[in-house]
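Renewal narrative, Specific Aim 1. Our central claim is that a sequence can be written position by position from structural information alone. The example that follows is taken directly from our test logs and has not been curated for this report. It begins with the C-alpha coordinates describing the chain, in the order in which they were read.
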Protein backbone atom coordinates (compact mmCIF):
# COMPACT_ATOMS: atom_id res chain seq x y z
CA UNK A 1 0.00 0.00 0.00
CA UNK A 2 2.64 2.49 1.08
CA UNK A 3 4.67 1.64 -1.99
CA UNK A 4 1.69 2.31 -4.22
CA UNK A 5 1.16 5.73 -2.68
CA UNK A 6 4.87 6.55 -3.02
CA UNK A 7 4.84 5.54 -6.66
CA UNK A 8 1.79 7.63 -7.29
CA UNK A 9 3.38 10.67 -5.61
CA UNK A 10 6.59 10.20 -7.58
CA UNK A 11 4.67 10.06 -10.86
CA UNK A 12 2.80 13.21 -10.01
CA UNK A 13 5.98 15.00 -8.97
CA UNK A 14 7.61 14.18 -12.28
CA UNK A 15 4.46 14.81 -14.32
CA UNK A 16 5.67 16.55 -17.47
CA UNK A 17 5.36 20.31 -17.24
CA UNK A 18 5.90 22.65 -20.19
CA UNK A 19 9.69 22.29 -19.94
CA UNK A 20 9.69 18.48 -20.12
CA UNK A 21 10.19 16.65 -23.41
CA UNK A 22 6.78 15.48 -24.57
CA UNK A 23 5.85 13.60 -27.73
CA UNK A 24 4.53 15.63 -30.66
CA UNK A 25 1.00 14.21 -30.33
CA UNK A 26 0.94 15.34 -26.69
CA UNK A 27 2.31 18.80 -27.47
CA UNK A 28 -0.30 19.22 -30.21
CA UNK A 29 -3.14 19.08 -27.67
CA UNK A 30 -1.41 20.57 -24.60
CA UNK A 31 1.19 23.16 -25.68
CA UNK A 32 0.01 26.71 -25.14
CA UNK A 33 -2.68 25.40 -22.75
CA UNK A 34 -0.62 24.29 -19.76
CA UNK A 35 -2.01 26.99 -17.47
CA UNK A 36 -5.70 26.43 -18.27
CA UNK A 37 -6.54 23.92 -15.52
CA UNK A 38 -5.07 26.25 -12.88
CA UNK A 39 -7.26 29.02 -14.31
CA UNK A 40 -10.30 26.75 -14.01
CA UNK A 41 -10.73 26.70 -17.80
CA UNK A 42 -10.81 23.97 -20.40
CA UNK A 43 -11.05 25.88 -23.70
CA UNK A 44 -8.51 28.70 -24.18
CA UNK A 45 -9.98 32.17 -23.56
CA UNK A 46 -10.19 34.62 -26.48
CA UNK A 47 -8.94 38.10 -25.58
CA UNK A 48 -10.28 40.60 -28.11
CA UNK A 49 -8.94 43.72 -26.33
CA UNK A 50 -7.22 46.27 -28.53
CA UNK A 51 -5.94 48.17 -25.50
CA UNK A 52 -5.17 47.41 -21.85
CA UNK A 53 -5.96 49.82 -18.99
CA UNK A 54 -3.15 50.83 -16.62
CA UNK A 55 -3.04 53.49 -13.88
CA UNK A 56 0.77 53.30 -13.91
CA UNK A 57 1.98 55.30 -16.91
CA UNK A 58 5.58 55.34 -15.59
CA UNK A 59 5.49 51.56 -15.65
CA UNK A 60 4.01 51.57 -19.16
CA UNK A 61 6.80 53.90 -20.32
CA UNK A 62 9.43 51.50 -18.98
CA UNK A 63 7.76 48.55 -20.71
CA UNK A 64 7.61 50.40 -24.03
CA UNK A 65 11.27 51.46 -23.67
CA UNK A 66 12.28 47.85 -23.03
CA UNK A 67 10.37 46.69 -26.11
CA UNK A 68 11.85 49.43 -28.31
CA UNK A 69 15.36 48.62 -27.08
CA UNK A 70 15.42 44.89 -27.69
CA UNK A 71 11.97 43.56 -28.59
CA UNK A 72 11.42 41.86 -25.23
CA UNK A 73 7.72 41.17 -24.86
CA UNK A 74 6.30 43.43 -22.16
CA UNK A 75 5.58 41.30 -19.09
CA UNK A 76 1.97 41.34 -17.92
CA UNK A 77 -0.75 42.76 -20.13
CA UNK A 78 0.39 43.87 -23.60
CA UNK A 79 -0.27 47.70 -23.42
CA UNK A 80 -1.77 47.70 -26.95
CA UNK A 81 -3.00 44.97 -29.28
CA UNK A 82 -0.26 45.54 -31.85
CA UNK A 83 2.41 44.74 -29.23
CA UNK A 84 1.01 41.34 -28.41
CA UNK A 85 -2.10 39.38 -27.54
CA UNK A 86 -2.50 36.58 -24.96
CA UNK A 87 -4.57 34.32 -27.26
CA UNK A 88 -2.08 34.70 -30.11
CA UNK A 89 0.74 34.07 -27.60
CA UNK A 90 -0.77 30.65 -26.83
CA UNK A 91 -0.56 29.72 -30.51
CA UNK A 92 3.04 31.00 -30.64
CA UNK A 93 4.00 28.94 -27.59
CA UNK A 94 2.48 25.85 -29.16
CA UNK A 95 4.27 26.29 -32.50
CA UNK A 96 7.62 26.80 -30.77
CA UNK A 97 7.06 23.55 -28.88
CA UNK A 98 6.05 21.65 -32.03
CA UNK A 99 8.97 22.96 -34.10
CA UNK A 100 11.46 22.60 -31.25
CA UNK A 101 12.48 26.27 -31.19
CA UNK A 102 12.80 28.78 -28.34
CA UNK A 103 10.13 31.13 -29.70
CA UNK A 104 7.65 31.79 -32.45
CA UNK A 105 6.11 35.00 -33.78
CA UNK A 106 2.70 34.96 -35.50
CA UNK A 107 1.53 37.21 -38.33
CA UNK A 108 -1.62 37.99 -40.31
CA UNK A 109 -0.56 35.63 -43.14
CA UNK A 110 2.38 33.64 -44.40
CA UNK A 111 3.35 36.55 -46.65
CA UNK A 112 3.27 38.98 -43.69
CA UNK A 113 5.61 36.59 -41.86
CA UNK A 114 8.06 36.43 -44.78
CA UNK A 115 7.90 40.22 -45.18
CA UNK A 116 8.85 40.68 -41.53
CA UNK A 117 11.86 38.37 -41.93
CA UNK A 118 13.06 40.33 -44.98
CA UNK A 119 12.61 43.65 -43.16
CA UNK A 120 14.56 42.40 -40.13
CA UNK A 121 17.48 41.52 -42.39
CA UNK A 122 17.39 44.58 -44.67
CA UNK A 123 17.16 46.92 -41.66
CA UNK A 124 20.47 45.40 -40.56
CA UNK A 125 21.94 46.33 -43.97
CA UNK A 126 21.75 42.74 -45.26
CA UNK A 127 19.56 43.12 -48.33
CA UNK A 128 20.83 40.19 -50.38
CA UNK A 129 18.87 36.93 -50.37
CA UNK A 130 19.95 33.60 -51.83
CA UNK A 131 16.98 31.43 -52.73
CA UNK A 132 16.24 28.08 -54.34
CA UNK A 133 13.37 27.67 -56.81
CA UNK A 134 10.64 26.67 -56.79
CA UNK A 135 9.12 28.66 -53.96
CA UNK A 136 5.46 29.46 -53.42
CA UNK A 137 4.53 31.86 -56.27
CA UNK A 138 4.06 34.96 -54.15
CA UNK A 139 7.28 34.34 -52.17
CA UNK A 140 9.09 34.12 -55.52
CA UNK A 141 7.39 37.35 -56.62
CA UNK A 142 8.18 39.23 -53.40
CA UNK A 143 11.87 38.41 -53.81
CA UNK A 144 12.07 38.83 -57.61
CA UNK A 145 10.22 42.15 -57.68
CA UNK A 146 12.34 43.50 -54.82
CA UNK A 147 9.21 45.03 -53.29
CA UNK A 148 10.89 45.29 -49.90
CA UNK A 149 14.23 46.42 -51.28
CA UNK A 150 15.82 42.98 -51.27
CA UNK A 151 17.98 41.64 -54.08
CA UNK A 152 17.79 37.94 -54.86
CA UNK A 153 20.21 35.44 -56.36
CA UNK A 154 18.49 32.25 -57.52
CA UNK A 155 20.53 29.10 -57.35
CA UNK A 156 20.24 25.35 -56.92
CA UNK A 157 21.10 23.88 -53.50
CA UNK A 158 24.64 23.02 -54.63
CA UNK A 159 25.29 26.65 -55.58
CA UNK A 160 24.34 28.24 -52.26
CA UNK A 161 27.84 28.50 -50.78
CA UNK A 162 29.16 30.25 -53.91
CA UNK A 163 26.19 32.64 -54.05
CA UNK A 164 26.81 34.06 -50.57
CA UNK A 165 28.07 37.66 -50.37
CA UNK A 166 29.11 39.87 -47.45
CA UNK A 167 25.65 41.49 -47.56
CA UNK A 168 23.70 38.21 -47.74
CA UNK A 169 21.15 38.28 -44.94
CA UNK A 170 19.12 35.19 -45.71
CA UNK A 171 19.06 31.88 -47.54
CA UNK A 172 15.56 30.67 -48.36
CA UNK A 173 14.32 27.21 -49.34
CA UNK A 174 11.07 25.25 -49.34
CA UNK A 175 11.12 21.52 -48.80
CA UNK A 176 9.02 19.85 -50.09
CA UNK A 177 8.62 22.80 -52.42
CA UNK A 178 5.38 24.32 -53.68
CA UNK A 179 4.20 23.05 -56.17
CA UNK A 180 6.67 20.44 -57.50
CA UNK A 181 7.33 18.79 -54.11
CA UNK A 182 11.08 18.93 -54.84
CA UNK A 183 13.05 18.14 -51.70
CA UNK A 184 16.15 19.85 -50.36
CA UNK A 185 18.70 18.27 -48.00
CA UNK A 186 18.18 20.80 -45.20
CA UNK A 187 21.17 19.65 -43.16
CA UNK A 188 23.56 20.03 -46.11
CA UNK A 189 22.09 23.41 -47.05
CA UNK A 190 22.28 24.66 -43.45
CA UNK A 191 25.95 23.68 -43.42
CA UNK A 192 26.62 25.61 -46.65
CA UNK A 193 24.92 28.72 -45.23
CA UNK A 194 27.65 29.15 -42.62
CA UNK A 195 26.61 32.03 -40.38
CA UNK A 196 23.85 33.27 -42.72
CA UNK A 197 20.40 32.34 -41.36
CA UNK A 198 18.61 29.62 -43.31
CA UNK A 199 14.85 30.07 -43.64
CA UNK A 200 13.02 26.81 -44.37
CA UNK A 201 9.38 27.14 -45.40
CA UNK A 202 7.87 24.10 -43.65
CA UNK A 203 4.28 24.71 -44.76
CA UNK A 204 4.03 21.47 -46.75
CA UNK A 205 5.74 19.06 -44.34
CA UNK A 206 4.48 20.54 -41.04
CA UNK A 207 6.37 19.65 -37.82
CA UNK A 208 4.60 16.28 -37.94
CA UNK A 209 6.87 15.13 -40.79
CA UNK A 210 9.91 17.40 -40.47
CA UNK A 211 11.42 19.81 -37.94
CA UNK A 212 13.89 21.97 -39.91
CA UNK A 213 15.38 23.59 -36.80
CA UNK A 214 16.83 20.18 -35.90
CA UNK A 215 18.63 20.23 -39.26
CA UNK A 216 20.10 23.67 -38.66
CA UNK A 217 17.48 26.05 -40.10
CA UNK A 218 17.46 29.19 -37.96
CA UNK A 219 14.02 30.27 -39.20
CA UNK A 220 11.06 27.96 -39.83
CA UNK A 221 8.21 29.62 -41.69
CA UNK A 222 4.61 28.48 -42.06
CA UNK A 223 1.66 29.68 -43.97
CA UNK A 224 -0.56 28.75 -41.01
CA UNK A 225 -3.46 29.18 -43.44
CA UNK A 226 -2.71 25.68 -44.67
CA UNK A 227 -2.20 22.60 -42.43
CA UNK A 228 -1.85 24.36 -39.07
CA UNK A 229 -5.36 25.82 -39.28
CA UNK A 230 -6.38 22.86 -41.38
CA UNK A 231 -10.00 23.75 -42.12
CA UNK A 232 -9.72 26.43 -44.80
CA UNK A 233 -11.25 29.11 -42.58
CA UNK A 234 -8.34 31.16 -41.21
CA UNK A 235 -5.40 33.11 -42.68
CA UNK A 236 -2.18 33.28 -40.67
CA UNK A 237 1.57 32.96 -40.74
CA UNK A 238 4.26 32.17 -38.18
CA UNK A 239 8.04 32.10 -37.86
CA UNK A 240 9.53 29.64 -35.35
CA UNK A 241 13.06 30.66 -34.33
CA UNK A 242 15.44 31.53 -31.50
CA UNK A 243 14.41 34.26 -29.04
CA UNK A 244 17.01 36.70 -30.38
CA UNK A 245 15.51 36.68 -33.88
CA UNK A 246 11.98 36.60 -32.42
CA UNK A 247 12.65 39.93 -30.67
CA UNK A 248 13.56 41.57 -33.98
CA UNK A 249 10.45 40.07 -35.60
CA UNK A 250 8.20 41.42 -32.83
CA UNK A 251 9.68 44.90 -33.28
CA UNK A 252 9.00 44.77 -37.03
CA UNK A 253 5.51 43.40 -36.44
CA UNK A 254 4.77 46.25 -34.03
CA UNK A 255 6.06 48.88 -36.46
CA UNK A 256 4.48 47.47 -39.63
CA UNK A 257 1.27 46.05 -38.17
CA UNK A 258 0.94 42.59 -39.73
CA UNK A 259 -0.53 41.12 -36.55
CA UNK A 260 -2.60 37.94 -36.31
CA UNK A 261 -6.16 38.55 -35.12
CA UNK A 262 -6.94 36.90 -31.74
CA UNK A 263 -9.84 34.91 -33.23
CA UNK A 264 -7.43 33.59 -35.87
CA UNK A 265 -4.97 32.76 -33.07
CA UNK A 266 -7.71 30.79 -31.33
CA UNK A 267 -8.65 28.89 -34.50
CA UNK A 268 -5.01 28.08 -35.28
CA UNK A 269 -4.43 26.74 -31.76
CA UNK A 270 -7.59 24.66 -32.15
CA UNK A 271 -6.32 23.35 -35.48
CA UNK A 272 -3.01 22.25 -33.94
CA UNK A 273 -4.77 19.78 -31.65
CA UNK A 274 -5.67 17.56 -34.62
CA UNK A 275 -2.62 18.35 -36.77
CA UNK A 276 -0.77 15.02 -36.25
CA UNK A 277 -3.92 12.96 -36.84
CA UNK A 278 -4.93 14.97 -39.93
CA UNK A 279 -1.47 14.93 -41.50
CA UNK A 280 -0.99 11.19 -40.97
CA UNK A 281 -4.43 10.24 -42.28
CA UNK A 282 -4.25 12.52 -45.33
CA UNK A 283 -0.67 11.37 -46.06
CA UNK A 284 -1.73 7.72 -46.19
CA UNK A 285 -4.47 8.59 -48.70
CA UNK A 286 -2.08 10.78 -50.71
CA UNK A 287 0.50 7.98 -50.95
CA UNK A 288 -2.17 5.62 -52.29
CA UNK A 289 -3.45 8.20 -54.82
CA UNK A 290 0.15 8.86 -55.95
CA UNK A 291 0.56 5.12 -56.51
CA UNK A 292 -2.65 4.86 -58.58
CA UNK A 293 -1.79 7.99 -60.60
CA UNK A 294 1.68 6.61 -61.37
CA UNK A 295 0.09 3.50 -62.89
CA UNK A 296 -2.38 5.48 -64.99
CA UNK A 297 -1.60 5.91 -68.71
CA UNK A 298 -3.33 9.34 -68.74
CA UNK A 299 -0.66 10.62 -66.32
CA UNK A 300 2.85 11.37 -67.61
CA UNK A 301 4.58 11.89 -64.27
CA UNK A 302 3.82 11.89 -60.56
CA UNK A 303 5.71 13.86 -57.91
CA UNK A 304 5.41 12.57 -54.35
CA UNK A 305 8.02 13.40 -51.69
CA UNK A 306 10.24 10.73 -50.15
CA UNK A 307 9.29 12.37 -46.85
CA UNK A 308 5.61 11.58 -47.49
CA UNK A 309 2.88 14.14 -46.87
CA UNK A 310 -0.58 14.97 -48.12
CA UNK A 311 0.41 16.82 -51.32
CA UNK A 312 0.66 15.14 -54.73
CA UNK A 313 1.67 16.82 -57.99
CA UNK A 314 1.21 15.19 -61.38
CA UNK A 315 1.60 15.98 -65.05
CA UNK A 316 -1.26 14.96 -67.28
CA UNK A 317 -0.95 13.97 -70.94
CA UNK A 318 -4.24 15.69 -71.78
CA UNK A 319 -5.57 19.18 -71.04
CA UNK A 320 -5.11 20.11 -67.36
CA UNK A 321 -7.89 22.72 -67.57
CA UNK A 322 -10.36 19.98 -68.47
CA UNK A 323 -9.30 18.00 -65.37
CA UNK A 324 -9.97 21.07 -63.20
CA UNK A 325 -13.35 21.53 -64.88
CA UNK A 326 -14.12 17.84 -64.46
CA UNK A 327 -13.85 17.31 -60.68
CA UNK A 328 -17.07 17.01 -58.68
CA UNK A 329 -16.14 15.86 -55.15
CA UNK A 330 -12.70 17.50 -55.12
CA UNK A 331 -12.80 21.29 -54.82
CA UNK A 332 -11.12 23.16 -57.70
CA UNK A 333 -9.41 25.88 -55.66
CA UNK A 334 -6.02 27.29 -54.78
CA UNK A 335 -4.65 26.86 -51.23
CA UNK A 336 -4.06 23.54 -49.49
CA UNK A 337 -3.96 21.73 -46.19
CA UNK A 338 -7.68 21.64 -45.54
CA UNK A 339 -9.81 18.69 -44.40
CA UNK A 340 -11.27 18.53 -47.92
CA UNK A 341 -9.31 17.75 -51.08
CA UNK A 342 -8.35 20.67 -53.34
CA UNK A 343 -6.89 20.67 -56.84
CA UNK A 344 -5.41 23.57 -58.79
CA UNK A 345 -3.31 24.33 -61.88
CA UNK A 346 -0.14 26.12 -60.61
CA UNK A 347 0.69 27.71 -63.99
CA UNK A 348 -2.74 29.42 -63.92
CA UNK A 349 -3.10 30.26 -60.23
CA UNK A 350 -0.58 29.69 -57.41
CA UNK A 351 2.46 30.39 -59.63
CA UNK A 352 0.84 32.64 -62.24
CA UNK A 353 2.68 35.67 -60.88
CA UNK A 354 6.08 34.05 -61.57
CA UNK A 355 7.63 34.84 -64.98
CA UNK A 356 6.62 32.03 -67.36
CA UNK A 357 10.20 31.08 -68.31
CA UNK A 358 11.34 31.04 -64.67
CA UNK A 359 8.29 28.98 -63.81
CA UNK A 360 8.92 26.37 -66.49
CA UNK A 361 12.65 26.13 -65.84
CA UNK A 362 12.09 25.16 -62.21
CA UNK A 363 9.69 22.36 -63.12
CA UNK A 364 6.32 24.11 -62.97
CA UNK A 365 5.18 22.93 -66.39
CA UNK A 366 1.93 23.83 -68.10
CA UNK A 367 0.49 20.34 -67.59
CA UNK A 368 1.29 20.13 -63.87
CA UNK A 369 -1.61 19.83 -61.42
CA UNK A 370 -1.30 20.12 -57.63
CA UNK A 371 -3.54 18.05 -55.40
CA UNK A 372 -3.94 18.73 -51.66
CA UNK A 373 -5.37 15.53 -50.24
CA UNK A 374 -7.92 15.80 -47.44
CA UNK A 375 -9.69 13.33 -45.22
CA UNK A 376 -12.23 11.84 -47.62
CA UNK A 377 -12.32 8.15 -48.47
CA UNK A 378 -9.55 7.15 -50.87
CA UNK A 379 -11.85 5.31 -53.29
CA UNK A 380 -14.27 8.24 -53.49
CA UNK A 381 -11.33 10.53 -54.29
CA UNK A 382 -9.95 8.14 -56.87
CA UNK A 383 -13.38 7.83 -58.49
CA UNK A 384 -13.54 11.61 -58.87
CA UNK A 385 -9.97 11.89 -60.21
CA UNK A 386 -10.58 9.01 -62.61
CA UNK A 387 -13.65 10.76 -64.00
CA UNK A 388 -11.88 14.11 -64.26
CA UNK A 389 -8.86 12.56 -66.01
CA UNK A 390 -11.26 11.05 -68.51
CA UNK A 391 -12.54 14.56 -69.16
CA UNK A 392 -9.00 15.79 -69.84
CA UNK A 393 -7.92 12.90 -72.05
CA UNK A 394 -8.50 14.54 -75.48
CA UNK A 395 -5.58 16.94 -76.08
C1 LIG B 1 0.41 29.70 -49.13
C2 LIG B 1 1.87 29.68 -48.93
C3 LIG B 1 2.56 30.82 -48.49
C4 LIG B 1 1.87 32.14 -48.27
O1 LIG B 1 1.02 32.08 -47.16
P1 LIG B 1 -0.30 33.00 -47.00
O2 LIG B 1 -0.83 32.55 -45.68
O3 LIG B 1 -1.20 32.69 -48.16
O4 LIG B 1 0.15 34.41 -47.00
C5 LIG B 1 3.92 30.70 -48.26
N1 LIG B 1 4.57 29.55 -48.47
C6 LIG B 1 3.94 28.44 -48.91
C7 LIG B 1 4.72 27.18 -49.14
C8 LIG B 1 2.58 28.46 -49.17
O5 LIG B 1 1.96 27.37 -49.62
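The sequence written for that structure reads:
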Amino acid sequence: MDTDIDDHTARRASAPGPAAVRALATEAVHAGRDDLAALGLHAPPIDLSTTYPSYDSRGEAARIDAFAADGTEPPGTPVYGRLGNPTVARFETAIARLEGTESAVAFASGMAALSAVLLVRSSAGLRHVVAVRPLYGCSDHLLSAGLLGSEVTWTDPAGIADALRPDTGLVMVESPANPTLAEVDLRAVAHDCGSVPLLADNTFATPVLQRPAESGARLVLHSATKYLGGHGDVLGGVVACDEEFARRLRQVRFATGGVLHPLAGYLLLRGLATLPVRVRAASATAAELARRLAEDPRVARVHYPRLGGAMVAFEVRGDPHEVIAGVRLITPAVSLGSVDTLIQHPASISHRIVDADDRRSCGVGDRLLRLSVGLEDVDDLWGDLDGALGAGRGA
